[in-house]
Give the backbone structure.
Amino acid sequence: MPTSSGDAVIEGHCTCEAVVLRSYPLRESDIIAVLYTRQFGRISGVARGARRSRSRFAGKLDPLSWVETNFFGKRNADLVTIDSAELIESFSQRTHDYRCLLQLSFLAEILADTTPEREPSDAIFRLALLVLPHLTQPFTADLAQLYFEIWYLKLAGLYPSHRHCHQCQAELSESPEVFLAPGRHLVCYRCQGSGSAVSSDALGLLDAIHRLHLADVFRADFALSAVTELRKISEFLLQQSFERSFRSLKLICQEA
C-alpha cells in the first residue's frame, strides 16, 4: 500500500497510540496483540502475564480498543514486548448490536490482513478513528463502513476515478449511463462492454464521500439504496484488489 516512504524502525522504548486489531493466547499466561499504531503502522507484540486474573492489561488489549501503549522493540525482532497499555476507548463495549460488532470486526480484519507490517500511515490511523465510533450505532454503521471502504481503497490508489471514463477519458458526468467494467474501472456508455450499470444516486454518493467529511455525508441523507449499491461495488473492489475473501464481510452479508 503506497502510503509510506518505508518501513518504520522500532528500537528501544516507544510510546504511541494504537488500535488493537487482534489478540490471542501465547503459552499459559501471555498474549500476542496485533496493533495498528499511529507512528509504526501494524505491529505485533507480546504482553507478558496478560491472561492472569489480576493482570495490569486486564480489559486493555481486547480487539477494537483504542489505547496508549508502551513497548520495547529490537531492530530485527518480529515481536515487540508490550510493557503497558492505557485504555482510551473500547469500541466493542459501546454496542451490543451483532451487526455492528461484525462491522467493527470487518475494519479490524482489513487492517490486520491487508496493511504491510511496520509501514505507518497517519491517514489510515485517522480514518479508522473517524469511523469507529459510528460503527457502534446501527443507524450510522452502514454509511460509516462504506466511507471507510472507499477511503481505504483511495489511500491505497485502488479506487477507480469517478470523474473520467477509464477508456476514453470522457467526463462521466456527461454520460447518460456509467458502468463498472470487468477490469474494476468506471467507464461511459460508449465504452461499457460487458460492465454493470451504476446508478446516478450511487455516483452522487461516491462524489460526496470524496469531497466531504463524514459528518457532512451523514447530514446529506442519501437514500439507503445508494448506500447499498455503492457498498456492493466497494466490497467487490476490496476483495478483488487484495485477492481475498473477508470472513467478517460474509457474516455481515448474511445479516442483511
In short: The helical segments are 98-114, 122-131, 138-155, 200-211, 214-220, 224-241, 247-255. The chain has two domains: 14-90, 98-255. The domain at 14-90 is CATH 2.40.50.140 (OB fold (Dihydrolipoamide Acetyltransferase, E2P)).
